[in-house]
Records
---
Amino acid sequence: MPEGDKAVEQRRSAAWFGLDGKLGFVHRSKLYNRGGSGSMFDGRPVIGIANSASDLAPCNAHLGQVAEAVKRGVLMAGGVPMEFPTISLGETLMRPSAMLFRNLMAMDVEETLRANPLDGVVLLGGCDKTVPAQVMGALSVDLPTVVVTGGPALNGRFRGESIGSGTHVWKFSEEVRAGRMTQCEFRSAEACLSRSAGHCTTMGTASTMACVTEALGLSLPGSAVIPAVDAGRARIAEQAGQRIVAMVEEGLAPSRLLDRRSFENAVRVNAAIGGSTNAVVHLLAMAGRAEVALALDDFDRLAASVPLLVDLMPSGRFLMEEFHDAGGLPAVIRELGDLLDRDAMTVTGRTLGENCADAPNWRPDVVRTRKDPVAEPGSHTAVLRGNLAPDGAVIKLSAASPQLTRHTGPALVFDTIEDYDAAKDSPDLPVTPDTVLVVRNAGPVGYPGMPEIGNLAIPRKMLDQGVRDMVRVTDGRMSGTSYGTVVLHVAPEAAAGGPLALLRDGDRVTLDVPGRRLETDVPDEELAARAPKDSVSGGLRNRPAPGSGWASLYRSHVNQADTGADLDFLTGRRGHAVPRRHL
Ligand code: FES
Ligand code: MG
């Protein structure tokens, strides 16, 4: 290491590679097995590349190629790239729910970063939970961080038309149930949906999290929407590799970039893109890690002035390829103009406004103007409260039927999603178009892991009558690719002593979106009389969860959805002080 260079001496990796004696020997010697020279240890920034590639997470399977491009960039800029694997979370394969493991993945990333000789990190994720998990972990460590997502897949194509991830699965399966599509056609559609490497093509959770991460200022401008197989994906990855080296020199850690303004921007961008309701949970958790005050109600209040600009499924017509053609997120940010705080800082070292000042919009049919939006302001997220959701619940209005957003009807309550599935096609199901379908015990503690079961299939009896949407209520989540009048994230959840546990069949439930209410007219005294003792005192949440292993730890410590469903002992920053080591 060159002597007398203060910045280099203070570099974190110097506490490993700059050491004399046997510890320095041990830290360095094994790395010579890569065939490199001692220049690895001359004080260059050491850059971690956190790679969540996995055959079990098909959306992330190509991230090895992205990592190669990042490495190229790091080397070009004079850094030392160190790629390492992280846990990966594949939305389509994991059971009971990938969400059960988001916080585990965040722990993996956090502990790996802190325990190793890293000065900065590039996070490579894609599939829904992988990006928030990596960001949560990295924010708790607070080393210079750039996010590079894997990018969306090419549009699915079926019978000459574009079909969207998730969204068309729900559409087709309803068509099969309604007898308008054969099983054979359904199976052939299956092979046409995922045409290439990359994550979901709709504005589901993966695309949403890529966009809100860019809006937060944690990824390079324009990077969120570039298709996985576009050469531009490798180009931006290479640029990120170059940029992270400079960020280490500049000491540009997330705590110097992210503040309340960044999160407000992310919440507003989520509304403008018609983003997933899952962004609510993930952004709350990320803000918790960054020690920025962000509350559930902010999602309603901040989104109220933001029109829906991006015409993508499930709220609109197009897919991520068209969004990329249009110019990507910078076009949206520029169009949002003074609705955002353009002075928020980003990884480029410039502000969000500076990054996007000249962003073109090549497809005004995809990224619409504020004068001619897809939907008027206030059509995105509403936060509901009431005696069924004292700590809040969420509804995505752009996915809901306007005529159902003010509705009172009798509850039909199911204790598990399996119970609902077994009953939904029965001709004896006591259901009318007015029925409010409730599935509880699908929250973080109850399931466990808060699965995406909220967009309950419409009962066959109703489908036969031509009913396509009904009010549904759950303490679980729904896929970002779903639609319907679905009240989600009810907090506290039934299994944590929430009042949803006390609801009975036939109780009248009112959804009043304009009034922001989710209520039952069952009087408080009657509800109190129904409450089992442990339910009033907090149910499962206040007891050690039964069993052993991760699920038990998770259930004992998970926070409720209204604060992001992080583990209670993981919120906040713990920094990157060099841990002790002795030989
Ligand atoms: Fe991975 Fe949708 S399943 S992004
Ligand atoms: Mg999803």
---
Amino acid sequence: ADLSRFIAGLPKAELHLHIEGSLEPELMFALAGRNGLTIPFTSADAVRAAYQFSNLQDFLDIYYQGAAVLVTERDFHDLTVAYFDRAAADGVKHAEIMFDPQTHTARGIAFDTVMRGLLSGMADAKARHGITSCLIMSFLRHLSEEDAFATLEQSRPWLSHITAVGLDSSEVGNPPSRFARVFAAARELGLKLCAHAGEEGPPDYVREALDLLAIDRLDHGNRSLEDPVLTARLAGAGMTLTVCPLSNLKLRVVHAMADHPIDRMLREGLRATVNSDDPAYFGGYVADNYVAVAEARGLGRQELATLARNSFLGSFLPDEAVAAHL
Ligand code: ADE
Ligand code: ZN
């Protein structure tokens, strides 16, 4: 209880949060009802019982299915507000939110509908909780480069509201190299660059994300630790890793929380942060992730404070705003 209180009281930024992954089963049911859609479950508990994953793809299949209840601008607004209400209780002061436009545009939902709903939810969060936020538009790597370029094109009217692009979905078999050109185009447009790499994929994918995408931030990055040269390079470059302990456990990136490498990352000089990834699916929001990994690895207050401090250092906030949070 003492540890939980200390963790909730630590001001923190959340840097790895898929807004579609914050869709709780209760809201999923409410949105399905409101939109006249049927879902293949009889209750919120039945939905939770179906969340048994043995790898990333198992999770992605059910996550994309769940996102299908998001139809109207109000749906995206309500989803976003629900996340921020929960994040506020966890001591989140700033959130950099990923969204997957292709998951929605592929179902005939307009890009503008998604953006309007997310942005109005973010404005509400600022007004209600004082939490600042920005958006990371993530490309689905199981789709083509052409599809990613079309998405970048659709985002043009909204570019002043988008801070970065990301790369997510099925990692193995979809290396960063497939998206080098679209990332270069995003960079030209003034966007920051993130990519999921080294979650299930090998250290080579992390190297590609650095060398071919020129990422500003690395999502997950766990498997970098298999390569000492790469680890030293990430540490030397001051690269931020957005690590997600409960996600790592549920998707079997680690076999037990007691094996989680978060403290090893810090000892290797990596700028590691703690994040929730898809909290509605992995059993916890950001503070739960800090608590779970702190208990399993015996982290002390100093290490926890370092992780929280890293979250601001690794954010895309301007330097003055970072300094104000430290
Ligand atoms: N989409 C949502 N969560 C993800 C994860 N952990 N890895 C890859 N794609 C994702
Ligand atoms: Zn993720």
